[in-house]
């Protein structure tokens, strides 16, 4: 069975590093892995998605179909709602309680919508993660992305993979311990 | 020892180029192709270069191939329009060592001004073409393309699409096979394309096509997967993966990787006995037309049904959802959540972008018609600037402005001035010839070159103005002002675009002239990794922050007209996000109450 993971967020939030670490781990566990990223026209501030699909058999398409994601992990809460059409029936949403207003909001044309978390809960099995707060507890707001990666690892039962080794190979030495702790915390939060 | 690695299609093509022993590669950056040359440039064994444009890149690769090294050029789909001229004639001669060209098409137009199916170029130029479906095929087909190029004395086109370029899958790494330089031997009757020679080559091209047609049916990249069914699917590129997701083993497949010339014999063999065949391909009905021409129209469902009704969509990205919906009528029921709670995130100029102040002022000039170009600065069209009237392709800003100005000048009492706006890299790409047209043909439009010291939009590639090559070597830093002067422009001003008063005065100056003028705004891109030259010229660049004095702020929202993503309104006062602000001071200059420090 092919598993489908969708990471969504805003440019600059570290979704790309998180999905890179995730795919390397899945590869190490001998899954066939495909990943597809689409980022908008601008360098920063646009909506960013990473589709990750893996299976013990061959995976063909790198793109998740609507209604097929086993899990959506949203680094920004409005993004969770934007891509909810991808979630399968019974799928899970892990959403970072974090707001990044886009230009229509900062320019005063519209307000940042209220009640997003409630709306998510109405339609999906939703776990709210306060990743910023958790990251600060660990020691750096920059590891928000690794906490959210940890929720995927916990939720998709991928804890048997040696994530510490993958971090060691792919993260700057001074950040390895911080990132390890962040992933561990994410796994706990997914329980 | 073999090693597997997760790679994007672009990385895999670059790896194939490396393993194939290529010694020369050239490209011009363009989404979704940019990372191919970026990855090639990391290999010291290959001379890799950013050329000023795609035509130059292909011509340089052609020359390198004649010189005797395996050579390579890559570009986005519209880049092949620019390089079409050499492409069609190189098709006659072929190279000396292998010559391979990549076109990266954009079904769905993620980051392009149009959508075009460049497989048509293969047929049009009579050049063989390959269409990989994943990264492993990207690498293997690239190596294969060089073999085929040498065996059949032809350039080979590889057609990628955005999803192939930017998706990752597993690739087996192999060592590089070094290749000796093939000695160059003069052969004017082959390589000098005067009519007498080219007519002979033209006949050779037909002979070559006949051979390639036969080869296409026997080539490893075109194969049948027989699942014993009476329904078939013919698919190429990424569409093959989508077909596999939708049909699984319920159909027979003809997988086409070598898609021009199409494998006619193999296709006939595949189709015999089938009750129905789906042709699944992105963009044009390229394979479908060939299937129908073979006499199988009555069972063929592609872009059209046998009775001519629309079947698969004519444009856009396919994806397995789209294929599934068309074939089975089934689609996922979207949850009925409140969609008004999702606000768009339109692309915006970055906080501190040196184009911001310029477009803020340009948008206020109601006497200017703005002819835009291709780059980050195309965003000047959007709110709150609304400072662009039209754009089409690289370099067209100046030539379009010239033509329009000439006609507006025919209207009695005309006061409107046409302003062509383009970036430094775009000016080098094809703006220089356009500016020559203005001077030579006595135009008087205004040209603005937004020189942000880098190729910004595609993610910071070096260009002739930056002082560095694609492989990071210091090189001649080409002086834009010197070029403009040499082209014959007498009225030139170089300004700091973050000085709004100066921008306004410069517009007034340009508008007051009856002659053509060029304004160069010189300031480095806020995201650029500053070079030694930049640090020298702008020692304190982007090192300060602006702050709102809440006591003075009257909440008039004038600063929001800068379109800066760092500014928002909270409790009826402007607030500047400190993590984003880099102190460009554009908002400070706009504020009527001096409330920003």
In summary, what is this structure?
Chain A is an alpha/beta fold.
Annotate the secondary structure layout.
The complex is a heterodimer of chains A (191) and B (597).
Chain A: E1 3-10, H1 15-28, E2 32-39, E3 47-55, E4 69-74, H2 77-82, E5 87-96, H3 103-106, H4 116-123, E6 125-129, H5 131-138, H6 144-155, H7 163-170, H8 176-190
Parallel strand pairs in A: 1-4, 4-5, 5-6
Antiparallel strand pairs in A: 1-3, 2-3
Helix pairs in contact in A: 1-6, 5-6, 6-8, 7-8
Chain B: E1 3-8, H1 9-19, E2 24-27, H2 34-40, E3 47-50, H3 54-67, E4 71-76, H4 77-82, H5 84-93, E5 99-105, H6 119-125, E6 129-130, H7 135-152, E7 156-161, H8 162-166, E8 167-173, H9 188-191, H10 195-218, E9 222-225, E10 231-236, H11 237-247, E11 252-256, E12 258-260, H12 264-271, E13 276-280, H13 286-296, E14 300-301, H14 319-328, H15 355-362, E15 368-371, H16 396-408, E16 417-423, H17 424-440, E17 446-451, H18 480-486, E18 491-495, H19 500-512, E19 517-522, H20 532-537, E20 567-570, E21 573-576, H21 586-590
Parallel strand pairs in B: 2-3, 2-4, 4-5, 5-7, 6-7, 10-11, 10-13, 13-14, 15-16, 16-17, 17-19, 18-19
Antiparallel strand pairs in B: 1-8, 6-12, 9-11, 20-21
Helix pairs in contact in B: 1-2, 1-7, 3-5, 10-12, 11-14, 12-13, 15-19, 16-17
Low-confidence stretches of chain A: none
CATH superfamily of the largest domain in chain B: Thiamin diphosphate (ThDP)-binding fold, Pyr/PP domains
Q: How many separate helices of chain A? A: 8
- Radius of gyration based on Cα positions of chain A: 16 Å
Helix/strand structural class of chain B: alpha/beta
